[in-house]
Specification:
The chain is an all-alpha fold. It contains 22 helices and no strands. The longest helix has 30 residues. The chain binds beta-D-glucopyranose. Beta-D-glucopyranose binds next to helix 7, helix 15 and helix 20.
Length: 471
Amino acid sequence: MSTTVGGVGSDPASVLSSAPVPGRTFLICGLASLAGLMFGLDIGVIAGALDFIKRAFQADQRTQEWIVSIMMIGAAAGAAGAGTLSYKLGRKRSLLIGAVLFIAGAVLCAFAGSVAMLMVGRVILGLAIGIVAFTGPLYISEVAPPAWRGAMVSLYQLMVTIGIFAAFVSDSLLTASGNWRLMLGIIAIPGFAFLIAVLFLPESPRWFLLHGRTEEARLGMTALLGSRSQADREVKEIGDQLSVRQLGTTMFLRNANFRRSVALGVGLQMVQQLTGINVIMYYAPKIFGLAGFGAGASNWATAVVGLTNVLATLIAIGFADKWGRKPMLNVCFVIMAIGMAAVGLMLASGVHSDTGRYLLVAMVLLFIVGFAAAPGPLIWTLCSEIQPLQGRDFGMSVSTFTNWAANWLVGNTFLTLLSSLGQANTFWLFAALNASFIVFVIFLVPETKGVTLESIEHKLMQGEKLRSIGR
Ligand code: BGC
């Protein structure tokens, strides 16, 4: 098998020739993808609640930035520990811990009597996100039948955006009551449903193999694939893969070519966050407020942002393997730069009419379409494709950590930027950054569409320019 990340080896022939996949397997993948939903809910929920929290605690601008962004510190810590946790305790138990933390964090936020307690709740939610965002896709890629793996991992990504959207809608419905405690606390309910769902999940056969429990792995795999002979083949293939030792740190210290792919992963994730996507995800109602929308209208406009994010993600899922990563990224960075520049322009000249306000929402939506149709999902794909097999765990942990760190930076500085640089300049800054990322894509990013991971690794290790390690 040529190793495709997330096993996107959707070879129709293999679907036809294999035994029918038991419905139970799809149910398992569907239940596990609720991990993505929880992740999205917790990313999205703060946007509509922030203004009410500000009033309840008389929180100044810096405090608000911290309330938003401290979750990412928890997420970075959770992501850093998730590898060890899911190796030692297993995928299922790690997801269970994540689910319990989701519930605990939501309840703590709902009953927070002080900003400090709210922040503790947000850190706990961050830990849950860090663990689950690592373990969820890993588990799905391990239990999904090979021919369906790509689609199932995409389903997870889609669930993240659906979670964000659902949180925006729930915030909007609760805006009239101003009940921010309910906004944050209600997420304990899907958290509880997720906990129950995880209880029904079987442990991943790959984890059994990692711990030398071959017979359990074989049994689990047979149940998932519906055929003993196919299960034997899979178990053998995984066994072969596991014989490749992970050399992460040693390889990083000794191999300059590996350092290049790690640096590219870091660069890609910084680019993704510096687009300013989470400025919109966390602060959209505030931005709409700047243009004169009331609280209710701002939160509903934010819900439309969430829906657009879901729908445009389908473009990336449908076309990345046809059009290629680089053209899609470049077109989308142009779209995003235009969206951000237009928002800046409108805020500079002042938005005085309803038409102006709708136009501003339209420009934010343009930006979102650009993000969701390419850098949103594709940067994650690229980060997993560019790392050599023996350094994949290390390379992906470093880039994922960077994602959270840069996410924190953006969330922690946006309001300060608005008040120090000015509203228009802040959006122009993001417009300029998005435009400059085209240069990054042209000179540094490889085109990995339809290329095997073996070939990418070979070229990387031969010292080819980064932009040439793909096609
Ligand atoms: C990013 C997140 C962002 C989300 C929005 C993801 O690809 O990593 O930071 O909140 O997209 O859909």
